[in-house]
Task: structure prediction
Amino acid sequence: MKYILRFLAMIMAFVLLFAAYGGRVDPDIMTLPSLATLALPVIALAALVMMLLLAVFKQGRAAVILLGAFFLSWPTLRLISPLNFSHPDAEPGKTQLKVLTMNVTQFNWFDGDHPSANMRYILDQNADIVVIQEGLIYYSYEQLKTVKPMLDELYKKYPYRKKHFFDVGILSKYPFTEVESPVLSQDTTGYFIKAWDVEAPGGELRVVSMHLSSLRLSTNDSRILDSMNMPSGRRERAKSVLKKLTGGFCTHVRQARVMRQLLDETSGDVLVMGDMNETPGSFCYRTVCGDDLRDAWADTGFGPIHTFNAHHLYVKIDHILYRGDLKPLYCRLDKSGESDHYPLVALFERH
Result:
């Protein structure tokens, strides 16, 4: 029996490592590793339960096999479930900058005339810089009945604002200039990238807002996910969703390379925030991060979180990435507002 358990432990260890490093494989070459990386939190949890059971039943060698796999997988696992038991201390005399990113789902203008809980949340946070996705639909959010009751407060708190057609935008307490780049003039149908150079405390800071395309899951596909517990036609529904996911992974590769090209031609301090529609450790995430960007949640957070909360897809697809003279003091998720995404807030320290 002990040899069978060791063999099973070896299989689970291989699956864990495959998922942890699947994000290093280009989806244009093979999509299975990307699917494995998407499932990494579930795989890691299963491996952890198995390892603990093996230890309880005194199958030490089999448990050690899995422990070794966890150790080797840690560079990716720390992006998903960091173990920072405390936050860095603020240093006297350093400038602090609070930022917020939120997919606001068009401020829920389609859900009645009650004031937007998403805009209320943004104003209450009093962040220095806010980037929003899905915020501007086909006209200014200032025309929305859900936002109008808060316009005076919005204008006073954020005198510098930019409204881009349909999707991304910025609210800032400090002046900024929009970045003009051939990279950003490319055809970005279906996804949105904008950048601004903000005159922030501590020196100029480039803020990049991203909203990469969804993983091709339509409203009908979302209903499919909601009904996966129904046995009838389950295989066909699963095939439909998997086909959309694999197509979406390949699309994201091209979009991530546009992001990386913009970052490569950018010097100085950079913040990249928004809805990537990709999980930590994925090929797209690694492409955007390159060798120079760090993840504020991985560096200051504790445990796993999910920023998407609809259709039983509980994944972290919204991110705050940074480089340069920026030190994150904390990054947190707030389960606030009325969007299908939870907002991320981070506080940075600058010289």
